[in-house]
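Practice set, problem 2.
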Amino acid sequence: MEATMKGLCALRKLRQELQDDAGVEFPQAIHTEMLVLYDVCRCLDFNLFQCKAVLGEMGWRYINTYLGMHVTTIERIVDQ
């Protein structure tokens, strides 16, 4: 699926509104919403730079840390 610049800007605006609502608790306060935004980016085949633009730098780091943490945890459980 090919996304337009208009769509990317709309998603970024949505994230900014959510971030403003979350305040100092961003991104933890909107954990689920950040995961949904990440999934939308993936479904739209956004590249790395587009995903970072939508999620913001802090949101991008948060999602990657969260996803990486769970993959590592699952690998440990499987190895046992």
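Problem 2, part (b): a different protein.
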Amino acid sequence: MDKIEEILIQVSDLGNLLEIGISTKINRVIVNKNVYEILPSMIERFYSIIRTWEENYSGSILENSEMFRILLKEENKIHTIEGIGLYPKNYSEFKEWVGEVCVRDLL
């Protein structure tokens, strides 16, 4: 994960789409088109959360199923992790992390 340059996170729930973009080179995060500084420790925490995740999680899709997609840009490669209707066992920890990143946009 040391070579990851950019991260794009998309979470869609009940028709609402949240996008978070992170530049790991300059420790910047974009939430709702607003740019903030992000601490390297927050990026490291993100990595520790998704470290064991598989590339695809899909289960029974219900009308209110939440969808998530994470794109990790590493030099000329893009790695994708995504899911709908089925989630990693520590998905709630990921959602907490997302909330902490987004709270700045609400202040």
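Answer key, part (b): The beta strands are 4-13, 16-23, 28-31, 34-37, 56-58, 67-74, 77-84. The two ends are 31 Å apart (CA to CA).
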